[in-house]
Structures are given as C-alpha cells and as structure tokens.
Design goal:
Blueprint (H helix, E strand, L loop, with lengths): L12 H14 L3 H15 L14 H16 L16
C-alpha cells in the first residue's frame, strides 16, 4: 500500500457543493477527483486544463479604461450609456 498524506484546505461552500454534485454524477468522490488532478499535474508538470485571464483586466484594456475615464473627467469625452456586452460561456 502506498504512503498517504492528508491535505487540508478551505474552499467556498457553494463551490464545494457544486463540485460534489457533479462528481457524484460521475461516480467519483472529492478525494478521487483531487487525486486524479494531482497525479496528472505531477506527471505532466502542468495544470491539465487551460487557465486564461479575463480580458477585461488585461493591461491594454485597463489603459483604455483609464484614458476614457480621464476624458470623461476632463470633459473631452462624453459619457454615453450603452448596452452591456454579455459573453456566453458554454
């Protein structure tokens, strides 16, 4: 039998419940799912899925927003109402 270690961490209760429901549907325990994840990380030396930043917080967009805000504050740019752009994540 392999040596085992205990790992303890805190996570948002809603995230935990949502994950437990999904894992239960897959027939996995939280321990099994985390073990699969960690084995894959150890074997591949990478996070086994894509992680990307929200483009809203990119440096380019932050500079653009600062420029717009400065223009509104100094009166060189009108404040115009517009519809929000929704991004559907599927």
């Amino acid at each position: 039998m392999a040596n085992t270690a205990q790992v303890s961490f805190r996570i948002d209760e809603d995230v935990k419940k949502s994950a437990e429901l999904a894992l239960d549907e897959m027939g996995l325990t939280m321990t099994a799912a985390i073990t699969v994840f960690l084995k894959k990380v150890g074997r591949e030396r990478r996070i086994p899925f894509e992680i990307s930043a929200d483009p809203f917080y990119s440096e380019t967009n932050m500079q653009y927003l600062k420029k717009v805000i400065n223009g509104i504050e100094d009166g060189t740019r009108p404040l115009v109402e517009h519809e929000l752009i929704e991004v559907n994540e599927e």
